[in-house]
Amino acid sequence: AQIGPPGIELQPTNGDIKIKVSPPEANQGKKMWVNDLSFKYNLVFWENSSNAQPRSKNIFPVDTIDDLAPDTTYCFKVQANLPVEGKEGLFSPVSCVKTTQKAVNDLLCAANLRVLGLNMEFHLHWENQYKQPVSYNVQYLIGYLKRLNEDYSGKWVGVPGCGNTSGTWCNVSCVITTTGFYYLRVQARAGHNKSCLSSEVKVDPLKMNEIGPPGVKLDISDTLLHIQISPPGGPEGEVMRNNYVLSYRILYWKNSSNDEEGAKVKETKQTVATIPDLAPETLYCVKVQALSEAYNKSSVYSQEECIQTPGEKAFPLIILATFLVALVAVLLVALPLVFVLYQAYSKIKYVFFPACQPPLNIEGFGGQLCPSPYLSAPEEPIENCSIIESMITYEGNQIDFKDYKHSKQSSRDSGNYSNDDNASGSKGSAETLEKQII
Amino acid sequence: IMNAFGLIQTGFILLCTTIICSHQCNHLLLQQRKVIESSLRLLDKMGKNFPQQCLREKMSFRFPKQVLRPREKETVRVAIEEIFQHIFYIFSKNLTLAAWDGTALDQFQNGLYQQIEQLEECVIKKRTHYCWSKEVSRLKLKKYFQKIDCFLKDKQHNLCSWEISRAEMRRCLQLIDKVTRKL
């Protein structure tokens, strides 16, 4: 299907020409090209004289053509394209108009607008050559409004903090985000109601922004160099870093001959890096830059930081010596301490928890102190001693002897008779038993 | 003749697949992912939770998922750009009754618009046509967005129709987010 011709309206203003394009099928109920915001308009215009070269320009539905000669007739025609599909539409009918004279307020207008951005902080700078005092008002327009088919001239908004300034620059960061385009312009005001709007400047934040240098910190351990990179933009720069997907290029070299000869490169996506195998007792210098591969941007290099690598042999010896000293110190302190503690322990144990008990003949001694109770003494065998007084003479010796024997026996063991008796008794019983068995 | 035609077609397709590989358009791919992330965030930010009273009017629009099935990476990327264009168009007018946060909405549209603009620049520079226009699933995509547009018009862009559309766009962007992470 073919894209039909758009409509075109021209309005000369102050030496420029304001154009309003209406999309093809603008007033139709049923449309072939429903999304009329997807068109991109190509304007072709030329001076209405012979030998005029036509100029071609991509314009928004509502746009202004400046850079035209005053009091001259220009002719215009426009076509609607769908570039993504490679489709070009039919041209509108040609329309011609004459430009007016430009008002003589030129010197009052702010000129040479430029935006400088560092770590997403944007400053707008301009110039002015008006001799009398001027107050400026910076205004911005959100980019997408130009794509709509409506007139956006009423949609410019003042930038907070940039109204009524007398300087020639202003910080516009508060209105600029990482997504989308913005347009900025400056309105200059002098006494007696004179005012002038400058031309616009388009801001593509991530493309225009400069990435600042990162910070560098060095640390050394043995033959390893540790590099700590602090990302540009600080804590507020997180959004910026996220959008750029930053990586870092580290440059390091030996500073022996004051030359940057043999500078080596290391690339990393992290904010810490380690460089191994360094020569001992050498001064190494490092500088780092931040890169965004996707946007083909790089920051300036950071400040140079230098550090000296330690000597080779000294180091292990130092460690050994330190170790030995520490060992000796520990022994010197620990052993007496252990000894003292042991002595104290044994004394305390001796006094409060004695191992041996006090002797029994010390009555009541330590009866409370000794926790172990006295054991009840076992019954000692008591001898029943009876003294038989017998006269021992030579005459009745034998009898006496017998008696003595008897007494002896009895003295010895009174139970002897009983034993005998028992024995006889037992014999008797045994006999009776035998009798019973038989 | 048929052989010659076949050769031309193959050549054409090969031409088509190199569109976004140019150095100048490098950041476009990274930016696409970032735009999707921020768009999701802003869609949430611009309004409150889905109002209960609108549940009755919910409609199923059936997003054509085959559009995002990657036969070729480039085709999917171009499909995503077209989806951005459609969403940009839907959210460009008759938003009064939605009563959303103006700043969030502005940023949302601005992000989509920047992405569309940059892709067009790349295309114009390279002067090659997209094979995407030949894709069958492209018509299904157009139908899907037309359905949403008609739904909004029928309901006279009232609050519920906007909230339902916003929820639908959120679902759509989440699908795209999943696909771009795999690319």
Key words describing this protein structure:
heterodimer; A: 438 residues; alpha+beta; Immunoglobulin-like; 5-stranded antiparallel beta sheet; 20% helix; elongated; disordered C terminus; B: 183 residues; mainly alpha; Growth Hormone, Chain: A; 6 helices; 66% helix; globular; 4_helix_cytokine-like_core (chain B)
Describe the structure.
Chain A has five helices and 25 strands. With about 450 residues, chain A is of the alpha+beta class. In chain A, strands 3, 4, 6, 7 and 8 form a five-stranded antiparallel beta sheet that branches. In chain A, strands 11, 12, 14, 15 and 16 form a five-stranded antiparallel beta sheet that branches. In chain A, β6 (about 75-80) and β7 form a beta hairpin. The radius of gyration of chain A is 59 Å and the shape is elongated. Chain B is an all-alpha fold and about 180 residues long. Chain B has one domain (about 35-180): Growth Hormone, Chain: A, CATH 1.20.1250. Chain B contains six helices and no strands. Chain B has helices at about 1-15, 25-45, 75-90, 100-125, 135-155, 160-180. Chain B is globular and about 60 Å long. Mean pLDDT of chain B is about 80; it is low at about 10-20.
